[in-house]
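HUMAN: I'm a chemist; might I ask for a sequence paired with its structure tokens?

ASSISTANT:
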Amino acid sequence: MKELIIVGAGGLGKQALAQLQIDYAHGIDWIIAGFLDERGPEVVPAELYYPWLGYPESFTPQPQHVFVAAIGDPFSREQQVTPLLAKGAEFISVRTRTNLGTRTRYGATFFGYDVSSGVDSQIGSYCFIDQDTLIGHDVVIGDYVHIGPRCLLAGYVKVGNHAVIHSGAMIARGVSIGEGAVVGMGAVVFKDVSAGATVVGNPAKVIFNK
């Protein structure tokens, strides 16, 4: 049986742990081994009952290990995932109570409870898509994307690598969210968002642009 290691022991890591403990694969395909976190052992509270196993950059994956990434900031997530991948680490997808549409493809991404998608969507690797998010048909989501809970991405939306879409945001049909862009909580986006820009409000307006 594989040993599953969570990369990131902050709030998102604790949330991931709670979901993994009841995932249908727990105890069948893998058991939870503990956490990796660049901040050291003090970030893993004793009440979690799982140990800090080391720093991502110095940890050596073994054949029995599989990994999930639970770090909120996409750039920090990539920084901690990359050295593990270079050493041959296997990251897996987690899909507890999801309903993904026909022909939807996805990489090693963590899906929160009750995420659903329409048909023919493509979802990259090392993303974290939080609970109750609705993804329309023919949506394309890049790598290292973070999508908060209860978001809506309508059909034909495109989301670039490292983008962040905060809780409750709604992205209209056919809109493109650029690489590294940030969509604020509850924003309603009707127009394309350029790479690196931050938008907030309804309708969403740019408040920061790289």
About this structure: The chain has two domains: 2-86, 101-210. The mean pLDDT is 97. The CA atoms of residues 174 and 183 lie 16 Å apart.
